[in-house]
Structures are given as structure tokens and as C-alpha cells.
Design brief:
Layout: E1 2-11, E2 24-30, E3 44-50, E4 60-68, E5 75-84, E6 88-93, H1 94-97, E7 115-120, E8 125-137, E9 140-150, H2 159-162, H3 171-174, E10 178-182, E11 204-208, E12 211-214, E13 236-240, E14 251-257, E15 272-273, E16 281-285, E17 288-294, E18 301-304, H4 306-309, E19 328-335, E20 343-350, H5 353-357, E21 369-370, E22 372-378, H6 380-383, E23 387-391, E24 401-403
Parallel strand pairs: 5-10, 6-9, 17-22, 18-21
Antiparallel strand pairs: 1-2, 3-4, 3-14, 4-5, 4-8, 6-10, 7-8, 7-11, 8-9, 11-12, 13-14, 13-23, 15-24, 16-17, 16-19, 18-22, 19-20, 23-24
């Protein structure tokens, strides 16, 4: 492993739907490894935290998704897909689709021009056409799902899109072959993107040649959370990962489809945390209350800053993470953003990221943390040793909520 290539990448997904906003993030570092993640049957899909398809990801959770031309047997399994509870919809690099990309129908706007999406994150974008595909995971299938193919060749990225942040258009910059967004919304933008005019946040464009203009796209034509379109087990997901006692090379777990629909996805004693109007729960830390969210697509505990935590920011090569002189233990209490009195005390420890990354064989770090001023992003380390439920919004489910 070359620790000099370590990076922190906190990507907050910009969501227009119902004034909610959530986030996903990632991080990568150089070394060798692989990302498989294969179906294990029924409603359970295998997932693996490891180095990822570019062999340089820290705390990335990956799986394999099978993509088909709609209504055909022309299918391709695509590994190295990042499992992200903080975004909505399936996005795949055109390079990972290969020739199958040519068989996926293009979605067009009312004028017959190709719809192209600028999927917006706080510090980056994904640009590419919206196409239709059948999606298969484990024993489940969703038909004719609008997905985003990440591909700059369809049209030049508009200036307004580029102004949001750099475009992550390839494996090296994204660190994954795609993103499986299984957060609690069904469409990735909602009513704001279905409305023409100045209030439209500019996710979707109609492109004629090199000319692209923002267009209104109905919620059903927007990029969709494919799990919500399954014929069964479609009201949410459970991310199930074992406890991790220290830095290791990989960890396997399960992504279970449905909540309360089969014996393996019952809520049981899990507490429900409904979000507030910003899509967040509440986190009490050192006597102050902050907004927070649970996000498997973030690769660390990203929370607050040095003045609020007493932690030290890392110098090169692990900028963007925390580097305390010795491990520091913390306690915080999560509560629902609205609708219930659920509370949960969380104990967690933050280690020196430069020291963690000096382990040449490790890519999974349960004590990795970094700054995120004013908010708690409970990233992948939070998921270790827990069953985390993500319930979808109506009509797919009775959410939105998290439960654990």
C-alpha cells in the first residue's frame, strides 16, 4: 500500500425532495485488493467492505448488481458497486457497463432530446444520461428502472453543473464502478425537479448536441431507488455487518431487502428514528445537540471539528481525517428528529488515521474519523456490529426512518 495516496472524500448528496438533504461520502488509498459481493439468494445480497475495484478504498461497502436490457436476457453482473444508504438510485460508470450500455434505452425529454443528469454532491458531481434497465439483486428484480450512466461523452458538462464541484467520471476518481443509492426516498430529486422555472435545482438537462438546458422531469422518470420497485420486499432494507475489533483487510455482511416481510428482516427490538424536515436525526454530544444521519456510503465517523472534539486534524498524507496522538473514546446519544422519543447511546473511538493507514494489508477501519463541522455523519464504522434498517417513504414503505 502507498499511504501517500490516502484521501478523505466527504460527498454530501444535494436532495431537493421535500426539503430533505442527506449525504454520502467515500475515501480511498492505494494498495491491492478486490471487491466481489455476490448474491446469496432470496432477499439477501452479499456485501463486502474491502479495497474496492480500484484497490484503494478505505471503508467502502461494495456489492454486485446485475443490469439487463429491459425485457431481455442481455444481462451483465457488475461488481464494485458502492452500497450507499445516503443517496437514491443506481449510478454506473459507462466503462463498467461496456457494450451493454448500447442496449439500454435512452430516456428523452418532451422535445425528444436525451435526458442527462447532473447528480449533485456538495463537493462533486456525476454527469451522464438517464437510461432504462432491469435490475436484479439476489432473488429480486425491478423492471425498466431509470438509472444514471456516468458518461461525459453524451454531452459536455454544462458550466452550472461543473460549478458545483469536480466531476467524478471514472474509476480512479469515484473509487467504485457505481453507486447503489438505497436511502429512504424513491426518486432522487422529487417534486422540485418536476417543476419548471427558477425553483428547479438543475439536476436534469435536455441535451441537443452540445447544447444542454435544465428541464423538468417527473418523479417517476427521475433516477429511482431500485429496491422500492421490487415486486416484494420493497419497503426498505437492512444493512447487516458483524462487529470489527480492529483494522482488517475485508469484512463480509448482508444487504437484506424488505422490513417485516420475511423472518430475516423483522424489526424486533430495533428503535425507530424518524428524520426531521432536513432529513436528519438528533445527536447529543458534550451537552450540545446537532443534526446527524446514518450513511453507509461515508467511510468514517465524520463529525464536528477540532474545537468541539479536542481531536487533531491529520497532516499529509491523511488530510481530511482525524489524527489524535492516542486513541480517544467518545459517547453520543442519538434521538429521533421527529415523531418518537427513541434514544440510543453510541460509544465510539477515533484513532490516528496516518497510523491506521500504515498497515499495508488493512482497508477496514472501525475507528476512522474525520471533521464535518456542525453535524454528525455516522458513516460505515457505525454500521459494524449493528443491523441498520432504512425504511422507504410512502407509498413504498412506512418511512422515512432509520432503525437499529
Amino acid at each position: 500500500m502507498n499511504s501517500a495516496s490516502t484521501r478523505a472524500h466527504l460527498r454530501a448528496f444535494v436532495i431537493a425532495a421535500v426539503a430533505f438533504s442527506t449525504a454520502c461520502g467515500g475515501g480511498s488509498r492505494g494498495s491491492s485488493g478486490n471487491s466481489s459481493g455476490s448474491s446469496s439468494g432470496g432477499n439477501t445480497l452479499a456485501v463486502v467492505a474491502n479495497a474496492g475495484p480500484d484497490n484503494n478504498y478505505a471503508n467502502g461497502l461494495f456489492t454486485t448488481v446485475t443490469v439487463c436490457a429491459p425485457g431481455t436476457s442481455n444481462c451483465q453482473p457488475i461488481s464494485g458497486i458502492l452500497v450507499d444508504t445516503g443517496s437514491f438510485g443506481l449510478r454506473i460508470l459507462s466503462s463498467a457497463l461496456g457494450t451493454l450500455n448500447n442496449s439500454l434505452p435512452q430516456q428523452n425529454d418532451a422535445s425528444g432530446n436525451p435526458n442527462v443528469e447532473c447528480a449533485q454532491f456538495v463537493d462533486s458531481v456525476l454527469w451522464g444520461p438517464v437510461k432504462s434497465a432491469d435490475i436484479m439483486m439476489a432473488g429480486e428484480k425491478a423492471s425498466s428502472v431509470p438509472i444514471q450512466v456516468v458518461d461525459s461523452s453524451v454531452a459536455a458538462i454544462p458550466a452550472a453543473c461543473k460549478a458545483i464541484g469536480p466531476a467524478e467520471q471514472d474509476l480512479k476518481s469515484l473509487g467504485a464502478n457505481g453507486i447503489l443509492g438505497i436511502g429512504f426516498f424513491v426518486s432522487d430529486c422529487g417534486g422540485a425537479c418536476a417543476t419548471a422555472g427558477a425553483q428547479n435545482p438543475g439536476f436534469y438537462y435536455g441535451c441537443s448536441g452540445s447544447s444542454c438546458a435544465v428541464v423538468a422531469v417527473s418523479t417517476t422518470q427521475q433516477v429511482q431507488n431500485p429496491v422500492a420497485l421490487f415486486s416484494r420486499d420493497n419497503n426498505g432494507v437492512v444493512v447487516q455487518l458483524p462487529p470489527v475489533g480492529g483494522s482488517v483487510s475485508s469484512v463480509t455482511g448482508s444487504l437484506i431487502f424488505g422490513i417485516g416481510s420475511q423472518s430475516n428482516n423483522a424489526l424486533g427490538s430495533a428503535q425507530i428514528f424518524r428524520p426531521d424536515n432536513n432529513g436528519n436525526l438528533k445527536t447529543l454530544f458534550n451537552g450540545a445537540t446537532y443534526e446527524g444521519f446514518l450513511d453507509s456510503g461515508s467511510n468514517a465517523y465524520f463529525f464536528l471539528n477540532t474545537s468541539a472534539t479536542g481531536l487533531t486534524d491529520c497532516a499529509s498524507p491523511a488530510e481530511g481525517f482525524y489524527c489524535p496522538a492516542s486513541p480517544m473514546a467518545f459517547t453520543a446519544t442519538n434521538s429521533a428528529g421527529s415523531g418518537s422519543a427513541a434514544t440510543s447511546t453510541v460509544h465510539f473511538t477515533i484513532d490516528n488515521a496516518n497510523q491506521l493507514f500504515s498497515n499495508a494489508t488493512a482497508f477496514v477501519f472501525p475507528t476512522l474519523g474525520g471533521p464535518n463541522p456542525g453535524i454528525f455523519d455516522w458513516g460505515l464504522p457505525f454500521f459494524f456490529g449493528r443491523n441498520v434498517f432504512v425504511a422507504f417513504e410512502s407509498p413504498a414503505g412506512s418511512g422515512p426512518y432509520w432503525a437499529y
